[in-house]
Amino acid sequence: MRIHTLILIFIFTAATTVLQIDSKKNTTNIRMRDQAPKMINAAYYQYMKTDDYRFTIIPETTKQKRQYETVQKNNQIELLEKEKRIKEDTIKIKQIQRTYLFISVLLILTLLFLFIYAFTYYRRVTRVLQKQSKHILEQQIHIKKQNEKLRKAVDTQNKLFSIIAHDLRSPLISVSNISKLIGFYIHDHRYEPLKELAKQMDRKNDQLIDLTDNLLDWTKSQSENLSPLFEKVNLNEIIEECFDIYETVSADKEIVLSYKRGDDFLLWTDRNMLKTICRNLINNAIKFTPRKGKIEILSNRTGYLMQISIRDSGIGLSPGKLQTIFEIDKSNIKNGTEGEKGTGLGLSVCSEFTEKLGGTIYAKNNEKAGSCFTFTIPLYNPALHYSKQKKPETEN
Q1: Is the CB of residue 345 less than 8 Å from the CB of residue 328?
Q2: What is the 8-class DSSP label of residue 330?
Q3: Angstrom distance (rounded) from CA 273 to CA 268
Q4: How far is CA 164 from CA 156, 170, 212, 294, in A?
Q5: Is residue 343 a contact partner of residue 167, using CB atoms and an 8 Å limit?
Q6: Distance CA 236, CA 240 (A)
Q7: Distance between CA atoms of residues 155 and 299, nearest Å
Q8: Pairing relation of β-strands 256-259 and 294-302?
Q9: Using one digit for the tens of pLDDT, what is the confidence trace for 43-86?
């Protein structure tokens, strides 16, 4: 069988060689060239009929084909397994990615929640701390104001006690001495000096009454519960009542009291407080005006306020005292032109009452001589004050 195979291979190789030689030399017959493939095919066909081809070539070819198919199938299986592994790996990667993404989102949301909570808590704590700080600051300011009021009250009380100790005791001692002199003169039947002693007694009594009134008025002004009883008040009536009180005192010093009566202006004020202000200012002007002096009372309407001025031709005020004239201070205490005692309480009462009545008060020196005290009081306005005035009347 091997010999036949070799012969067939030899014939096929020889035929191929001949064809190549003929094609190179271009001398080979065209017919021989055409017959060569046929000869080869015939030889191959004869070979296929041999047992060598059937029992050797075909089984080997089938075996190789099966091996090839097996290899291909194995390759396909491996390829499918690789694709399967790739898909599984891809799925796992996607699952891992989704897990990481979920964890990342959850972490971000957690951090965001913690940030929002911390920020909200910080704002809430800050707001609470600010409120507490504001409350503490307000309390500190309130305590500071209360301490300042207490300090002023203590200082004022000390000044007041020193004033009372001196000025209240002095007139009482004088009255006591005068009463003893009266008894002495009566015992000796000397009646002529009694007239002068009676005048001195009247002056001392007036000082005691003024001091007592000022003490009572000042005590009222220091009370936080003091509230003015507002009503419509005729200014001319108040001035005339004050003139009636001090007409005798001014006549003793030959002082002219003048008031140009104008229209009957109605004020919205407390009648007693207004009278106290006018009485103290007129008394103060008489005290510091020399004999044959002059005191004028002027009134002028400025908008919704009435401006009232008490102008005298007295000794005036030093520039330093103009700033503290309405405070209770020993430095503001000064005797009058004829030795009249002063306490400083009257002007302090005027300042307190004017403020409670909704006005202002100030002092200044005149151009030529003397001083001028001016205060303002709201005018009566029917559109605003009528209903307020009618309310207490209905209650009564």
Answers
A1: yes
A2: G
A3: 12
A4: 12, 9, 10, 31
A5: yes
A6: 6
A7: 36
A8: parallel
A9: 656 655 555 555 555 566 677 777 888 888 888 888 888 888 88
What pLDDT is recorded for position 220? 66
As a whole number of angstroms, the distance between CA 48 and CA 214 comes to 158
pTM equals: 0.55
Q: What tokens appear for 278 in the block?
A: 């006018």
Q: Report the C-alpha gap between 195 and 52 in whole angstroms.
A: 188
Residue 105 pLDDT exceeds 70: yes
Nearest to 307 by CA among 238, 375, 239, 381: 375
Instruction: State how far the Cα of 326 lies from the Cα of 352, in Å rounded to an integer.
Output: 9
Residue 323 CB partners (closer than 8 Å, separation 6+): none
Which residues have C-beta within 8 Å of that of residue 162, sequence separation ≥ 6?
A: 330
CB atoms within 10 A of CB 347: 23
| Cα–Cα distance, 322 to 330 (Å, whole number) | 15
Contact 288, 337 (CB under 8 A): yes
**Buried b / exposed e along 1-15 (16+ C-beta atoms within 10 A):** eeeeeeebeebbeeb
Helix boundaries (H) for the chain: 2-25, 30-48, 51-52, 58-163, 169-187, 193-221, 235-252, 271-287, 345-356, 382-395
Burial of residue 72 (number of CB atoms within 10 Å: 0-12, 13-18, 19+): exposed
115: Cα separation from own chain's centroid: 29
The C-alpha atoms of residue 297 and residue 361 are separated, in whole angstroms, by 15
Distance of CA 301 to CAs 33, 288, 357, 358, Å?
152, 27, 17, 15
Q: What is the DSSP string of 256-292?
A: EEEE---S--EEEE-HHHHHHHHHHHHHHHHHTS-TT
Contacts of 206 (CB under 8 A, 6+ apart): 249
Distance CA 355, CA 27 (A): 152
Q: Measure the CA–CA gap between 247 and 317, rounded to whole angstroms.
A: 24
Half-sphere exposure of 281 (CA within 13 A, CB side): 30
Residue whose pair of structure tokens reads 């005018």 in the numeric block: 379
Helices marked H in 304-344? none
Mapped onto helix, strand or coil, the DSSP state of residue 337 is coil
42 pLDDT band, cuts 50/70/90, is low
Supply 362's token pair.
């100030």
